[in-house]
Amino acid sequence: MPPTSPTPPGERILATTRPLALYSPGTGDPLAHLWTAEPAPEGTVAGQEWLSRDERDRLDAMLLESDRALFVTARVLLRTALSRCVPAVDPAEWAFRTGPQGRPEVLSPRTAPRLRFNISHTRGLAACLICPEIDCGLDVECLDRRFDPVRLARAMLSPAEADDIAAAPGGYVTAKRFIRYWTLKEAYSKGRGLGLSLPTASYTFRLGPPGPTRLHASDDDGADWQFGQWQHGADHMVAVALRRGPATDLALVRHRGVSAAAASQAAAWRTSSSSSAARSALSGPGRSFR
Fold first, then answer.
1. Contact 34, 232 (CB under 8 A)
2. What are the tens digits of pLDDT across the range 258-275?
3. Range of the structural domain that residue 206 is part of
């Protein structure tokens, strides 16, 4: 996928408040939706009042303003994006739980049990991935980092991946290649719901081009997974992982930010749209790929 240009800091872009399609009209396959947004200073993010008590407690424990801005932006982005998918639910009404391995999940409302999501943020960028029914993972990393990619590769990547890093030209090119591997591994482990419990050296990615990125030498069936990766603007790498099962490659729809005002308009559909239409947008004609 080609690089995208970042939006100005704090800006939210949303072209429409119409409910998003969660399944492909032609095939019935699930559609994945990805949002990205640049962090805005705390107190300037419309929709911050939607945060739950738990989210506010986590925010209060953060000392750095940059961390607080990223956290608020990511949480508001998640709530707004979920309400784009299910306009009958106000952004403040979403409640979440943490799975056994730390994967975040929708707890309520009960009308949305089939939505899966993942969020990630790094210096300068927050992102949110949502899709119905299927496991999904997401990672974003800043490319402007100072580190020794060869040393880290030997410690954190598989032998084949580490050899590939060692053979790279050096400098920024080598560091960027390491981050490509790392974001894919993060997205995959989060998609499986295993997080840090999955040893990162226990499986290997083969980077495209010329072909698509593929997973090899894992205890999981790599053929069940679809991966996407691209550079976002000049400073960030984005990777997504979708457990597609036997389906052909699923479509990924990318959105550049969301606005709190638009989310409120979407949620207001509860007074102008039938609840059956909202349920139809959620349940759709899709099939499960568990």
1. no
2. 554 444 444 443 433 333
3. 146-223
pLDDT at residue 113, rounded to an integer: 54
Instruction: Verify that 37 and 101 share a domain, yes or no.
Output: yes
d(CA 173, CA 165): 9
**pLDDT of 216-265, one tens digit each?**
766 777 888 999 999 999 999 999 999 988 767 899 999 987 554 444 44
Alpha-carbon Rg for the chain, nearest whole angstrom, is 19
Whether the predicted pLDDT of 50 surpasses 60: yes
Helix/strand/coil for 283? helix
Are 21 and 126 within one domain?
yes
Q: Is 44 helix (H, G, I), strand (E, B) or coil?
A: coil
* Among the listed residues 53, 9, 125, the one whose alpha carbon sits nearest the alpha carbon of residue 61: 53
CA dist 76 and 88 (Å) reads: 17
Residue 210, pLDDT score: 60
Q: Alpha-carbon torsion 66, 67, 71, 72, what sign? A: negative
1 and 100, same domain (yes or no): yes
Which of 138, 132, 106 has its CA nearest to residue 34? 138
Q: Tokens standing for 73?
A: 């932006």
Sequence-distant (≥ 6) Cβ neighbours of residue 50 within 8 angstroms: 75, 76, 79, 91, 92
140 domain-assigned: no
H helix or E strand, kind and range, residue 266: helix 260-267
